[in-house]
Design goal:
mainly beta; 31-stranded antiparallel β-sheet; 14-stranded antiparallel β-sheet; 49 strands; 54% strand; globular
Length: 815
């Protein structure tokens, strides 16, 4: 039976009889005995409740002793006893000194140090806590869960037993305090906790939803709540795909030690061979290692044109049966001292294995560098960090799972990015240091960088500059290798005038040394050594202004940057490895180096201006807008690259090649607690939007919500098969219709891509789902239908039902 750790730790954290209550009574009786003796005790440490460990605070209307029997009773108020950071209330308390039996009756209530509350009508325990009985037992935990039983018996110091027990993680009372049927509950004839076996056993367990029995097990077991981790089956993960059919992943956790475990998770499929997933985890004194992999022996499957009639058959097997596998591993070690190190190892035998088998979370950021979506990275790295310095050394290689050309007939023949076109980086060194204290009244920062890149296959634009790309065939040409060493120093000082103007003068000096090999031989170039440098001086100026309009404040902040640099030495022999993409926004627009890497940089005279306007009203309501752009004395044609579908023509993907940059427009707004939004766009001088992104979140009622986002890229001016422009609209939300019942929906519409034959017009939904939703304080259930039209999927479009189940304390299922 699936096990959920949250059930164990939340529902049964207390020893099923309420052993803490037993300890409390024993402590009370011990305190009474100590008071009966004549020997004085030494002063003890006072706890948070103001009492020493063996002290008892007692409030009662009456207290008496008749021989060996000590009793205390309350009137309108119950007897109150406090000891060891716990509280016990009852109508009557008694203790038999001779028999060693403690008894509490009439509305017994006990609060343990963790805040869990225990109730009973009768509680009886012996002094050594080896036996005891509770009648009408109930407990409420801090997380809102409740556990009740007709009787609770402590058979021995290791065995606790509850009879006719009921557990629920859900509220048992409504907002007005009236009793209500819990949404989910487990009812059992008997529940036994064996502390020696470290297990909890159920007999005749009935699982109820809304009070209705839905599932029965003659027996059910899970580890004792004192066990942090234990071997056993975890929650199974069902799924459906038209290529695989119905799938069920049944994970089993095998605990080797407190610091090591295995997760064995076979995926059983109705149409194809199973996929065995394995994971090994080990925690060391100063680090962690996680190794994960999967294996199957199967043919390829999906949509494929078997007879060559340009019409793909759906969900067929093709090719030979062969071994298919993946491996995803990472480790990170952080010993004492300034050094730490780690690694990742990620590889797969098939470009589409993760898509075919819906492998969960294959693209993760576990190292110093991230391979990005649909790229796997294997790396080793080390870091050294102090208060004033940082150094990192790394080496890595990439495997790409990206599609560069979608086949018009079948996705099984999509063309993927070649791994040889991606560089092997060994090493990559980054360093920076700041002196302790100001230099000439400002902050000085020194940076250093070094990298070596090796590439097997030839790659043209945008790595090579237009003047270096051969005009003829490039098949068989080697990849360009490059090595770079850079040093940089920048100084900046902040000054504020008496009128409130903020001045920040700065100086930046940089030098690069390149060694480039395997340049195209047709250009008459061999291994080249190239040196270059740049010096920049400038000032940032801003002047925030504020004015109040009734209950609203308006802040107007004009800003400008004037900088002058030596002419940029953008040698066309230097490949562009780290500055191919740039995103102009409010923060990057005012940087000295607006390109993210070292291979491209700006020079000459530049003036950057902008203004940010912010309006604030009420509490937390605001709206802001930024508009800015940069002007330069001369154009920079070195930033132009060939259009992918017309290599003879050049275009500017950066927005910085002209003497005026793109306009940057960025803003956010939150006019109410229920609405929040954000937007960003770059607009060229002709008023055309090159890139844009907008997102709006809305909430109404207590649980209704929706999110709308839009993203656009129009930087490539010419349509064609290699054009990577895109336009997406995404919507997700939920709307409750009646009580806890509602609908959940989501969809991603591709407004740019042309569909394959037989598919809807442009703008069709790439992914969509809609389902019936039930959600209360402890139980969420979705049943619906979804469709996936992602072009990278080898099986083509897939649709089918989905189920999502999340239970408070119990956990959730797969999708």
């Amino acid at each position: 039976m699936p096990r959920d750790r949250r059930v164990e730790t939340g529902a049964l954290r207390l020893r099923l009889l309420a052993g803490a209550a037993a300890m409390a009574l024993a402590s009370w009786t011990g305190a009474v005995q100590a008071q009966e003796g004549s020997a004085a005790t030494a002063p003890e440490t006072v706890g948070p409740d103001g009492l020493t460990p063996e002290a008892l605070y007692l409030e009662a209307d009456t207290a008496s002793r008749d021989g060996d029997l000590i009793t205390a009773a309350g009137g309108t108020e119950r007897v109150l006893a406090r000891f060891r950071n716990t509280t016990l209330r009852a109508g009557r308390l008694s203790y038999d000194l001779n028999a060693g039996v403690a008894t509490a009756d009439d509305r017994v209530e006990f609060v343990d140090p963790e805040g869990n509350v225990i109730f009973a009508s009768h509680l009886e325990l012996d002094s050594d806590l080896k036996a005891g009985v509770a009648v009408d037992f109930a407990t409420r935990f801090r997380n809102g869960a409740s556990l009740m039983a007709a009787t609770a018996v402590r058979r021995s110091e290791n065995v606790n037993e509850l009879n006719y027990a009921l557990f629920t993680p859900c509220p048992i009372c409504d907002a007005e305090g009236n009793p209500k049927e819990p949404s989910i509950a487990i009812q059992a004839e008997k529940v036994v906790q064996n502390e020696e076996l470290r297990a909890v056993l159920y007999r005749n367990a009935v699982f109820r939803v809304g009070g209705v029995p839905v599932f029965y097990l003659p027996w059910f077991a899970h580890p004792d709540p004192t066990v942090e981790r234990a071997s056993g089956f975890l929650v199974p993960i069902p799924s459906y795909d038209e290529g695989r059919g119905f799938s069920l992943e049944a994970p089993y956790l095998q605990v080797i030690s407190p610091s090591e475990d295995w997760l064995i998770s076979p995926q059983i499929n109705s149409r194809v061979a199973p996929l065995l997933n394995l994971q090994w985890r080990r925690r060391f004194e100063d680090g962690t290692v996680v190794l994960r992999g999967g294996y199957t022996y199967e043919r390829s499957f999906g949509d494929f044109d078997l007879d060559g009639d340009d019409d793909a058959e759906s969900n067929v097997k093709f090719g030979d049966r062969t071994s298919r596998s993946y491996f995803l591993g990472h480790g990170r070690f952080d010993p004492e001292g300034p050094w730490r190190w780690g690694f990742t190892a990620e590889r797969t035998s098939d470009k589409t294995l993760f898509d075919r088998y819906d492998v969960r979370d294959p693209y993760q950021d576990n190292g110093l560098y991230y391979g990005d979506q649909r790229r796997l990275i294997s790396q080793i790295y080390a870091e050294h960090q102090t208060d004033r310095s940082y150094v990192s050394v790394a080496a890595f290689a990439l495997q790409s799972l990206r599609v560069v050309r979608f086949d018009p007939v079948t996705p099984a023949l999509n063309e993927f990015e070649r791994d040889g076109a991606l560089p092997i980086v060994a090493p990559l060194i980054e360093a920076r240091w700041e002196p302790d204290g100001p230099i000439l009244g400002g902050r000085l920062r020194l940076r250093g960088s070094a990298v070596s890149l090796y590439r097997d296959d030839y790659v043209g634009s945008p790595v090579l500059r237009p003047g270096i790309i051969p005009p003829g065939p490039t098949l068989g040409l080697p990849g360009v290798d490059s090595r770079r060493v850079s040093a940089q120093a920048d100084w900046r000082r902040t000054m504020i005038s008496s009128s409130g103007v903020r001045w920040e003068p700065f100086v930046d000096v940089r030098a690069d040394l390149y060694s480039v090999a395997d340049l195209p031989p047709a250009m008459g170039l061999e291994e080249e050594a190239i040196g270059r440098g740049r010096a920049t001086a400038g000032v940032d100026v801003s002047y925030p202004l504020i004015r109040r309009f009734g209950a609203a404040d308006m802040i107007l902040e004009p800003m400008a940057q004037l900088s002058i640099s030596t002419d940029p030495d953008l040698d066309p022999r230097i490949p562009n490895e780290d500055s191919q993409t740039i995103e102009l926004d409010e923060s990057s627009l005012f940087r000295v180096d607006r390109f993210p890497g070292y291979d491209l940089y700006e020079g000459g005279l530049r003036l950057t201006t902008g203004v940010r306007t912010t309006l604030r009203w009420d509490e937390g309501r605001q709206a802001s807008l930024f508009i800015g752009r940069s002007l330069r004395a001369d154009e920079e044609p070195a930033f132009l690259v060939p259009i992918p579908d017309a290599p003879a023509q050049l275009y500017d993907p950066s927005g910085l090649a002209s003497d005026t940059s793109d306009w940057v427009v960025q803003g956010d707004f939150s006019p109410s607690d229920g609405i929040r939004g954000w937007g960003h766009a770059t607009i060229d001088s002709g008023g055309n939007v090159r890139r844009a992104e907008i997102a709006v979140d809305g909430r109404w009622g207590r649980r209704n919500l929706a999110t709308v986002s839009y993203i656009l890229d129009r930087s490539n001016p010419l349509a064609g098969p290699n054009n990577r422009n895109y336009e997406f609209l995404q919507l997700a939300g939920q709307q409750f219709v009646y009580g806890n019942w509602g609908v959940a929906f989501s969809g991603i519409a591709d407004l740019e891509r042309t569909p394959r034959p037989g598919q809807p017009d442009p703008g069709y939904l790439v992914q969509s789902e809609i389902g019936l939703l039930f959600d209360d304080d402890c139980f969420r259930f979705e049943l619906g239908w979804r469709r996936d039209n992602t072009s990278v999927r080898p099986s083509g479009p897939s649709e089918g039902p989905y189920v999502r189940l999340t239970l408070a304390t119990f956990g959730g299922t797969g999708y």
